[in-house]
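thought: fold this chain, then report.
action: predict
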Amino acid sequence: MEAPIPINTLSNISINMKIIENNDKKYNLIITNSSNKLLINIINENSLPKIEYYKEFTQKELSENGKFFKVFEDTNSIFRTLKELFENKKPKISEEKEYVKLTIVPLLLTLGESDLIIPRKKTDDKKVINDLCDVVNSQGKEINILKNKIKILEEKIDVLEKKIENNIILKRIKNENTLIGDIIKTNEQMNLICDWIDREKAFKFKLIYKGTTDGDTNEIFHKRCDNKGPTISIIESTDGQIFGGYASKSWDKNNKTDIPDPNSFLFNVNNKRKYSVSNNKGLMSGYICDFGGSSFHEIWVQDNFLLNGGNCDNGKGYNFTKYELSGGKSSFSIKELEIYKVDEN
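observation:
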């Protein structure tokens, strides 16, 4: 407990304290001792604008509000006692429409509680408007601060995303097992296909079949490509179209039925377009690069394809318009066909 305050210092000093009622209503209580009067000001902190209650009490007026105040000779003594009392027992506040009741709870219960009625101050419309403007301006400043913080965070996220993307691209470029060969000639083309598979990952590719050097027959294709897991098939037609497909399931010459492959897709590098599967028949894995299943044959590379070429269907098995995949033709001549095994790096 603080040392007693000399009586001659009690004039024009205040008790200022926060009071919370019912776990949500917050009040600011200010009691000032001035010119033999207690000035009591209570502010409802929850209201907007804030509601204030105010009254000045003489010692005589206070003595009429219960036994507690009757034992004091002046407001100095009352103020000193209230200051000490509030360190141990806070007063209670109950709010009505036009006033609040401040209840003093003495340490000696025999004195009983004393209630002080504090009326609501008359509203100053100009002050209310100014207070509301201050709140709006303050909130506007806070919103601008938050916007700036969000902008900074977004910029940091962009930097991190670019670093991640650059790291993935760097991995792809540094890896000697790339798609770059006689058909795919640039990192840009390779990264396009990698992104179509999964833009969040890096991949390594192994060339397992090349038509012009290994032979263009169905038998050789399956000898080199069967049971290899995910593969990328890349066709270059004699009129410069580069297109093909990704199969997440293995090729298998012994399987002449449809193999559902919802993760498969077709693509055209020239148009920079990826065509997702729309019919789950997927692959006819017993043939050469037969995407679309027995019903559609969206790509169908024929046996002895360097002579006989291949065919493109109308896009019912994958999402493309008629013959769009091969550059607008139902049949195409093949300059080269490469098959790459796909593994995550």
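thought: worth noting. Confidence is low (pLDDT under 50) at residues 1-10.
final: tokens above.
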